[in-house]
């Protein structure tokens, strides 16, 4: 069976972005992947705006540090506590600001790439300034050059602190940063020796960040002796080691494979991935070109790649909001859902990022996923509590959970869906074709859910109610979890 | 109508959910409890990094009192086990278990190159990995993978929670998380889900089929767990706390015919950077009361010998108190072992050596993975080497 035009267009929009938005419904049958990709590229070439989430109090404090030209002065425990709390709240806001970009920005490709890099350069850090700076580095370079991205990320306060490089000193090397740069950011396990890690760590000695998160090179902590890394010998500093890692073709291969898994298919096609790696290496790590290679290849649109991926929780939540524009009275609901589904932006499970694929799914997360549409549509009770995260909470109460302590039937989501555009789109569709049409627009799987079941559980009292309820029901199926 | 128990077990594990009619259940109200032999393990995770030194207290150690002038628990108020060792005053139930020969204490449990981040250290404990590797499956999940080839209900392990922990996620099998069998039954028993499932036919789309398989297992497990929870519901009084309710649910399932071997439940947060005394007192009171009811219930029903319970936390805390009436993240810690069939009892190994610290932190003496290897091999009769990916020595407590 040939893959329909609509399906390939949707395939592109789901993979190179967060799925079709309601205003794109008309395009799905009329446009082509080439045209749609050009538009994505164009929209994504604009410089992203800096997402500033730190609150005024924290910004004032940071300004104070700047003007006085000194490190954080002695603060009382209460002040420190207050700062930690505000920083944590600001990271929650940063999460929501970024989500908002993913839902509403036309630069879908860039935001999707940024989500990939956010998982690749996974970093937990409770300092809002560090986090927003790292995110900006990622969004600015998301489609640029991997060489530049790697160098810049490696010099962020977020990463240097997270991977303990502030403690990496000539007399007491700390290998954490050097190890993760090799294992997770560039070459992957098994392509270097423990000796390489030790020597690379020496090269990164003296790299640190100040209280503002700016990179500082502490000359007196740097080991400027000779090192041998991956067969090369010299008095390397950190930048030179990063260059040595980039010289290795294995780095292009490792990144290409990871991109393939994220954007194409969980199962790697070695031939395709090698072809991508070759071209990525030859282009001197041009990410934009690599993505073009993927999204303009015939094989990307092969049937086996369509509908084969399990949406990550963030992709799922964003995709729904793009198709059903909604006003959330309590935006924190999005944070609660991220927690329950196992993907909280800025809180990756570890430095290896979210493993993805089938690991998103267990009985609890699957049943939760299939209830979200109902919850948005106010048809479901909610009495589920996420696990606490001691790194986030540090012994304090959990703001997200308060939402549903209000009572047994408390709803986690107070949403007002703007149905007008969506319902209008189906004006000319005859009643008996509605279920198939809606399913066609929402699902990427070969076989759709049974129209009979959807009909049975939808409100048939009038056409609009039917469109709405059938949409909610289709979004509550296993098929909708895939893209 | 008389149906033999074992026949029912067979039906229960093979039949689809709709086949299990409540009428059956009536026949069992008179039948005796499950005969001893089905050994189960109950894991109690103390989340947040419990302060081990104020849990199992070195009541004659000057360094302990010197480093903790404000937080140290006086010898007189500790629940003395030996001349040297006392328990936190709130842990009265554990003291009784100690007297009764049903408590074991492992000291200095940890791992090389300890990580002081909650999430990372918990990751290491839950995956059963070294601190230098990142593993995406949990140690009990891999136990499930090994036990659950093609079984239709992944109920060999259950977590009493709304969200499933990494510890219980395997490559191919994942345990079920639920707080209340009835609620799980209610939410998954929605007709829409059942009908969607009924209409699905495997079409060779791998991920679609995977989701339907998970859905089908969830629905049939929800049914199975619910039915089992009503076979012999515990009639004992438990404290009305989350842990109390959770342990009561576990007891009811232990008394049933369910195939579950591992139960997992958490209590927290023990992250006591500030006001440690109050927080630990409150949590230990909850723990002690719940464990008291649970162990009494098991004894009354002759199942205490079939249950091995252990506690763990992602790390202990630093030896010195901090300036805010609390303690900061540390390293090695102690574990409680509870059960009627312990082969080693009491304080099993030496208390922490406070003269030999690593920059103010305890040095580990027992790798926690040897504890896992021991319970997997000796209690659950599973292949610990495959599950842990490495051969570890076995301890002798079970």
Characterise the protein shown here:
The complex is a heterodimer of chains A (483) and B (398). Among the domains of chain A are: 5-44 and 249-305, no CATH class; 313-417, no CATH class; 420-481. Helix content of chain A is 52%, strand content 4%. Chain A has helices at 5-15, 27-30, 33-44, 56-68, 77-104, 108-120, 128-141, 146-154, 157-162, 176-186, 194-203, 238-247, 249-263, 270-282, 287-295, 313-323, 332-341, 363-369, 372-376, 390-393, 399-402, 420-425, 434-442, 451-456, 463-475; strands at residues 207-209, 215-217, 227-229, 232-234, 326-328, 415-417. In chain A, a hairpin with a 5-residue loop joins β1 and β2. Residues 402-409 of chain A have low confidence and may be disordered. In chain B, α10 (242-254) runs parallel beside α11. Mean pLDDT of chain B is 89; it is low at 1-35. The longest helix of chain B has 25 residues, at 276-300. Chain B is globular and about 70 Å long. By secondary structure, chain B is α/β, with parallel strands linked by helices. Classes of the chains: A mainly alpha (483), B alpha/beta (398). At the A-B interface, α18, α20 and α24 of A face α5, β7, α7, α8 and α9 of B.
Quick take:
With 483 residues, chain A is mainly alpha-helical.
- With helices defined by DSSP (H or I, 4 residues minimum), what is the helix count of chain B? 13
Gyration radius of chain A, in Å: 24 Å
CATH class of chain B: Alpha Beta
Report the radius of gyration of chain B as a whole number of Å.
22 Å
Poorly predicted runs of chain A: 402-409
User: Total helix count of chain A?
Assistant: 25
CATH architecture identity of chain B: 3-Layer(aba) Sandwich
Q: Biggest sheet of chain A: strands side by side, in what order?
A: 1-2
Largest sheet of chain B: 9 strands, mixed
Number of strands of chain A: 6
Instruction: Outline the biggest β-sheet of chain A.
Output: 2 strands, antiparallel
